[in-house]
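[job 0417] fold request received: Putative ABC transport system permease protein
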Amino acid sequence: MLIYLRVLKESFNFAINALKNNKLRTFLSLLGVTIGIFSIIAVLAAVDSLKKEIEGSISSLDNSTIYLGRFSFGPTEVPRWKAEQFPDVTYEEYQYLKRTVPDLFAASFTLNVPVATMKYEDKTVSNVEIGAITNEYYDIEALKIEHGRFFNEAESASGVEVAVIGDEIANILFGSPEAAIGQKARLYGRNFIIIGVLEKEGAGLFGNSRDTAAYLPVNSIRKIFGNNNRALFPFIIIKPEKGADQAEFVAILGQKLRALRGLKPDEIDNFFVNELKGFTDLIDNITTNLNIMGLIISGFSLLVGGFGIANIMFVSVKERTNLIGIQKSLGAKNKFIMFQFLFEAMILAVIGGLIGLLLVFIVSVIASSFAGDFEFVLSPLNLLIGTAVSAVIGLVSGILPAISASRLDPVEAIRTGM
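[job 0417] inference complete; emitting structure tokens
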């Protein structure tokens, strides 16, 4: 064990001397490894950050949550022309499913309405995201009220003109969340009473945030836009009871809606049951494919870096031929010589990799400072991967030079070096 530690120490000294004595040559050789490691870890960090942000934006929803409507969230075998003929889900269907589907924890009817402008006296907030929902939405999605309350079932059913708004809207229009409660804001030409303000959330991945959103009873919006407006994209959001069999629940849900719509056994569903779990699986597949593509592209940079390390090691063997001959004449075994050059190649590659990791860290800090609430994550796992890949590249690149050095004849090596 001690002899290998000595070899490692000597190899480290040789690597450092190579850096000192042949700065330009070593720099050019390590540049490939540095760029390769930078590319790989930058891709991994970017994809991890993107995945974390997406998962964070949907973390308030349980994976068992189901979106029922005429649109599919993912690829489908239903032809586009046929899907466009599907009817919208209705408020009456929402009421029927809420009454009849077993193991149902909560169901909410929603309308996707255009962004709107909210006014209070001489103050205005544009591009307000409108959540036209029933009161059960509060139980499905983890909305956190900072001041006031959410609208109740009676207010939801009757379509009372009340609103729960985001923190940013409250501050712009009323000066503070506390001051917003009880005030009337103008929206769609109507006066909505502010009954609640959500906790501050921060910007989301695509700029959307509950801080600039307003939640209204869906029946108040139905009074404004009507019941047969195809541009509103209604959905029924459903959450089963905890512990319920998801597959069985989805099957019963589909059967109930098919029966209500009078579909025959040979007819396909004219609606889509979108499971949030399927959406998260889709995200995992996308991020996995992005990682694979990034690794393949970055692999070419590492290949160039490997050739650079191999080149500098062959040069190092040639320069130290005389020293190798002397070591062998004094009793150094082939294995000792081979490990000496292998360790040196690995140390050089790891140094290049560490420089690449440092560059990724610097870029991630700069990018995070310019990206607002989006945070680039450089995880310890990615750091470990970068270091391990560097060491492997050094090992692979140093094998041939190390073997050639270990096989040198001591007499010929001394004569060649003189």
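[job 0417] notes: The chain has a mean pLDDT of 82. The longest strand covers residues 123-133.
[job 0417] exit 0
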